[in-house]
Amino acid sequence: MRDTDLYSQILGLSAPWVTNGVAEGLNSKIMAIKRKACGYRNRDHFKTAIYFF
Q1: Whole domain around residue 29: which residue ranges?
Q2: At residue 21, does pLDDT exceed 70?
Q3: Taking a C-beta distance cutoff of 8 angstroms, is the pair 15, 39 a contact?
Q4: What is the number of structural domains in the chain?
Q5: DSSP string, 25-45
Q6: How far is CA 45 from CA 17, 20, 25, 27, in A?
């Protein structure tokens, strides 16, 4: 296999329109809940807050 073929296959694997923006946005919302709440008494209350945010 030539280097140019390998290079074009590697570039084909990474699609430029695929980003991790959704995951970053969700993480940002979870961190905002943590800051806003200043701590929950238990994990169940924290999970409920995430579900309703």
Answers
A1: 17-52
A2: yes
A3: no
A4: 1
A5: HHHHHHHHHHHHHT--SSHHH
A6: 36, 27, 21, 18
Rounded Cα distance, 50 and 48, in Å: 5
- Residue 39 resides in a domain: yes
Q: Tell if the pTM clears 0.85, that is, is over it.
A: no
Interatomic CA distance for residues 14 and 19, integer angstroms: 10
Q: 30-53, pLDDT tens digit by residue?
A: 888 888 777 778 888 888 888 887
Inter-CA distances, 35 with 17, 27, 49, 50, 51, Å: 32, 12, 12, 12, 16
Residues in the chain: 53
